[in-house]
Amino acid sequence: MTRIILDEDIKPLSEFRTNVTSCIEQARTTRRPLVITHHGKSAAVLLGVAEYEWLMQKMEILEDIRLAETQLADGKGIRHDAALKMVMSKATR
Asked: What pLDDT is stored for residue 77 in this prediction?
């Protein structure tokens, strides 16, 4: 996902309502989030589906890393050679 361009990717709610289709198309084609404001304050973010899915995948990976770090800190890790042996035994079945 690309960073927003401030003078293109921030729209007031009134403009969003008037131009919903073009706003959706903009978010989809530019692959940038569209920030929608209400009374001058950010209220919502519009993302294309591909960018949303990418963010969710990234979040899942980061959660897996956090869980692994927690498990290692709790002494629940195993040595690399033991893990490799376990994986290889399951792969050759």
From this structure: 87
Strands annotated E in the chain: 10-12, 34-38, 41-46
Per DSSP, the residues of 40-74 read TEEEEEE--HHHHHHHHHHHHHHHHHHHHHHHHHT
What share of the chain in percent tops pLDDT 70?
99
Euclidean distance between the first and the last CA atom of the chain, given in angstroms as a whole number = 41
Residue 93 has pLDDT above 80, yes or no: no
* pLDDT of res. 25: 97
Q: Is 70 left (phi over 0), alpha (psi -120 to 50) or beta?
A: alpha
pLDDT tens, 23-63? 999 999 999 999 999 999 999 999 999 999 999 999 999 99
- What letter represents residue 47's amino acid? L
Which backbone phi and psi does 41 adopt, to 5 degrees? -120, 145
